[in-house]
Amino acid sequence: MYNSLRKRLKVEIDEIKESGRYKDERIILSPQKSIIKTKDENVINFCANNYLGLASNDEIIDAAKRALDTHGFGLASVRFICGTQDIHKDLENKISNFLETEDTILYAAAFDANGGLFEPLFDHNDAIVSDSLNHASIIDGIRLCKAARFRYKNNDMKDLEQKLIESSNYRNRVIVTDGVFSMDGTIAKLDKICELAKKYNSLVFVDDCHATGFVGKNGKGSQEENNVIGKIDIITGTLGKALGGGSGGFTSGKKEIIDILRQKSRPYLFSNTLAPAIVGASLKAIDLIENNKSIISKLNENTTYFRNQIKKLGFDIKGDNHPIVPVMIYDDKIASEMSNYLLKNGIYVVGFSYPVVPKGLARIRVQISSSHNKKQIDKAVSLFKKAGQKFGVVN
């Protein structure tokens, strides 16, 4: 029987390779830093979610080691059976205090946080009003829920208001949006969203995975950037990006919401407890962010510098002043070939093409870190110029 499936899969794989959309997994032989070692050479990494450079921070590594010594390697259990340690509660409380919310629940991954959110809270009596560019994990989580679905155009407040009007007969409504749209580096208009939510008596949900820890003056995310702290009902986020880059996610928000998730959220009830080493490291990461705002300032400085330099070369870029900088290539194959050229010359970036982004909108997504220095950024800009000219993207 497998021969039939194998033949079909091989044809599909060959088609993906021919289109330039095949995703190779490049092997790294070192910790995650601004300079990483591959099997061929050392390269400057411009495609990690390591926004604050904490993935290889010595204090975070030491905190992880201490948690291993005091709390073991793993719990071999889910939370409600025998998998809750004191440090899990410490981290949940620390995240709540950091984000200024009422309570927090930890998950094995941020994907699980979104996947396990909607079904326990909403049913056919309710409506979900979701941004068209929301993350795949949000889309999958909504699919598991029986609530009515309305989709509004990305960051389009006029269309959002229209969808709120259309959904006015439902019991509860929730506006669902990424805080930062990861393919575009665009920050959601949460101030305007909260105004509409108040006008139409709706809840607000924000996935802040690409904002927690570094967006906003104090790193409190897109809610701080938009001056709406305390107005967001539900926030999901990750421990696997700016907060040390390990793994794990969370949902933070109103106390009763978090309480019902502990009772009914399937990824929480049926997944192993977050490993103690990750918890210990994450506690230290939040400490570092709260006590040293210079790493956020350095990230903002690096981001502004790179964006300005790459625009001067004539490249189209998307997004706000966010460290995600999509350099638009538009052609899938050229994006792939150009990223390979940059890698061979010491700049590690990855081309994004359909189905990760819409057809005709292929790009190289550059991600800036506070750990990058000016010399490294200048080298990237110089090589982007050469690559852009070589592949006919810029003059």
For the biggest sheet, the summary is: 7 strands, mixed
CATH architecture call of the largest domain: 3-Layer(aba) Sandwich
What would you call the shape? globular
CATH topology of the largest domain: Aspartate Aminotransferase, domain 2
Oligomer: single chain
Looking across the biggest beta sheet, what order are the strands in?
3-11-10-9-6-4-5
Q: Give helix % range.
A: 40-55%
CATH first level of the largest domain:
Alpha Beta
Total number of beta strands: 15
CATH superfamily of the largest domain: Type I PLP-dependent aspartate aminotransferase-like (Major domain)
Average pLDDT figure: 96
- Return the structural class: alpha/beta
Walk me through this protein's architecture.
With 395 residues, this protein is α/β, with parallel strands linked by helices. The chain is built from 16 helices and 15 strands. The strands form four sheets. Strands 3-11-10-9-6-4-5 form a seven-stranded mixed beta sheet, with helices on both faces. It has a three-stranded mixed beta sheet with strand order 1-2-13. The longest helix has 19 residues. It is globular. It starts with a helix and ends in a 5-residue tail after the last helix.
